[in-house]
Amino acid sequence: MKVSKIFLYDEPAVQEIQISNLKNFLLETFSVDVEIRECIFNNLDEKTVEKISGCRIFDPKLPFKKHQPNRQEIDFEKSVCEDTKLMEKTTMVEDAKKIEDVVMYDGFEIQNIIYGIIAKNDSNPNNLHIVFTNKLTCTYDTTDNRYHGRAVICSNPAIISTTGMIEAPARPREYYFDAMKCKMQGLDIQNVKKNYSEEFLDYHDKRLSKIAEGYLLQTIFYYMTGDAFCDSLDCRLNNA
Question: How many whole angstroms separate alpha carbon 169 and alpha carbon 6?
Answer without folding.
Answer: 26
